[in-house]
C-alpha cells in the first residue's frame, strides 16, 4: 500500500450548497403540488423527455383500466407501442436520434450494453481490458482511456440514472424496453453535460396487468442462459415488476500449454421496480437493482513477444495473423474476476396543469477485484490486479411544459457526487529480470458536479420553430495518491513514491445550443443546430513511473454543427433520417503512448486542435411484400488532428504524431443492415426469419502507438423463430458471427513494444425457448 496516502477530509462547502439548493427545489415542487387542486388523470400519452422538441401536448382524460391485450413474446406488444412512439418522437426531434426497441434487441441477441454499437450509425464500442471496461464513442467523441476510473464524454443512463464509470455498464441488459442514442453535445434536457452524446437504456416498467415470461437458452461453449420477468398489481395503487437474468458458460479461449479456459461467463442481474400511484397526477417509481460477475476474464493475444526475444513462436505468445482466435498463452497467472454492484433510485413524477415534474434520486455502489493478463503473454510483463470500490450519488430534477403555447420548454438542475478508492497493482517481473518488479497505484478520486440547464423550442409560424438552450456546469475533481515502487526496481528503495498528487481542481463552463427546424409537411422535418459541449479535466490513474504521466489533463471542449432531415413516407412504410456534422475540438482528451521511467506506458494528454466531419443515414422500410421489412444504417467520418502535440507534458512519444493523423475511435466507414420476414405456416403457427450484418472500418485505439489500430470488423447473424398465433411460447435457433471472423477489436503496445490484441468472439450457435404467462 502507498505510504503517506492523503485522504479527503469530507465533502466541501460547495457540495453542501448544491445539496441545499437541490432540496429546496424538490421541496418547493412538492409543496406546490400539495396545494394545487386535483385535475383529471394525466396517465395518457406521457411526453417523451430527454429529447429536443419531443414534448407533446397532453390532454387530460378520465382514468380507466386498460383493456386486456394479447399475450406477447417477452413484452413484444408493449415494446411495439413504445418503439412506435419513440420513433415518431425521433422523427420530430431536431437532432440525430437512434431508438432500438426491446423486441429488436432480443431478436438481434444483444446481451451487453456495448452490443448495440453494431446497429447504431456513428457509434463505436470496444473493450479495452478483459471484458471490464467498455469504451463508447459517438462520432469519434467518447473515452479513449482504458482505466475504469475515468469518465466518458458520453452520458450513460440506465432508467434515467446517470452512470459515470465504465464498470457500471459492463454487465448484462435485462428486460429492456428500448435504447435511445442521442448524438451531439447533451445536457440541455436532463443529466450531466456531455460532449459526444447520451445513451439511455430504459427497462420495461410495471403495469397493473398480471403476466410475464421465462426464457431458457443453450449455446456454444456449454453456455446456459435464463431470464424472465413477472408483472402485476399489488394493490389498486401499487404495481410491481421483477426481472432477472443469469448466464453461465465455459470459456471460449483455451491456453496453448495447460488447457485452462478463459472468457467464461457467470453473470447474474436482478431488478425490481415498484410503482406507487399517489393520486391521479402523482407517482413514485422505486428501482432496486443488483448485478454480479464471477466469470473468468478473456485474455488478449501477444503476437510479437517471441520474435522480439528470438524465441520459437508459441513460447510466450501466439502465432501470427492466421492464428486461432480461441488459443491464448496465459501461463500460471491466476486470472479471475469478482465484481458486485447494486443500488436504488426513486423517481417522482407529478403533472401540474402547466408542466410535468420529474425528479430522480439515485445511489449506486460497485466493487471490483480482477486479476488480468493484460499483456497477452505467459510472462509477467504487464499484468494487473485491480481492486477498486465505486460510489455514485446523483439527482436530477426538471420541469417540462405540457400546455399548448408557442414555447415548449424544459428547465432543471443536476447534481452528483462520486468517489473511487482504487488500487492497481502492475506486475513486471520478467521485464526487469528481477525476482519481482511491482508497481502499485493507490489513490482516491472524488468528483462533485452541479449544473442548471434549459431547453426551449419557440414556434414562430406553423412550420418554423427556433431552438435555444443553455447550461451552466460546475465540476470539482480531487485526486489523492500515486504510484509506489513496491520492490525498488526503479528507485532502488522499496515502497518509494514514484509519483504522487494531492490536489483539487475546479472547472465551470457555460455551454449552449441554438438551432431551427422547419416542418415541410407533417411527416418531413428539416433542422440545423449549433451546440457546444465540455468535459471536465481529469487524471490518469494507472501505475506509472513519471510524475508527468499522472498530472492533470485539461478540460475538453467541442463545438458541433449539424444539419439534417427526417421523413416518414408512403403512409409511414419508409422512414429516413439523415445528418451531416462538423465538429471542432479544443484540448481533446485522448490516450497517448509515451516513454516513462518504467518503460512504454499509456497516459492521457490533450490534442490542441482537431476536427471531425461526416454524415449518417438511417432507413426503415416495410416492403410491399407482406411480412418483409428492412432496417439499415450507414455512417462516414473523417476525424483528423489539426494541431498535433510533440510531447505529453515533457514526456517523449514512442512514435511521432503529425497533423492530419486520424483521431482515435473514428472509423471512416461503417454500416449495418437487418432483414426480417414473417409468414404464417398455418392458421395456428407463425414463422420468422432474420438475417443481419454489421461492418466497421479500421480505427485507431490511441495516439503515438504504432500497434494501436484495429482490423476491419464484420459479423453476420441469423435467427429462425417459431411461435403459435397466440404467442403463448416461442422457440428460436440463432447464430452470431456466422462467417467465423476473428478480427482484432482492440490493440496496443506492451511495455516491451510487443503487440497485444483482443480478438473477435468466434461463431456462436444457440437456441432459446420462451414461455409467456
Automatic annotation (TrEMBL):
Keywords associated with the record: Cell outer membrane, Ion transport, Iron, Iron transport, Membrane, Receptor, TonB box, Transmembrane, Transmembrane beta strand, Transport
InterPro entries: Beta-barrel_TonB (IPR000531), Beta-barrel_TonB_sf (IPR036942), Plug_dom (IPR012910), TonB-dep_rcpt-like (IPR039426)
Signal sequence annotation: none
Pfam families according to UniProt: Plug, TonB_dep_Rec_b-barrel
Membrane association type: Multi-pass membrane protein
Keyword Ion transport set for record: yes
Record-level GO BP terms: iron ion transport
Region (Disordered): 43-70
Entry superkingdom: Bacteria
Compartments in which it is found: Cell outer membrane
SUPFAM superfamilies for this protein: Porins (SSF56935)
GO cellular component, one term: cell outer membrane
Domain TonB-dependent receptor plug per the UniProt entry, residue ranges: 92-198
Location of the TonB-dependent receptor-like beta-barrel domain: 291-738
Keyword Transmembrane annotated: yes
Family: Belongs to the TonB-dependent receptor family.
Protein name: TonB-dependent receptor
Annotated organism of origin: Acetobacter tropicalis
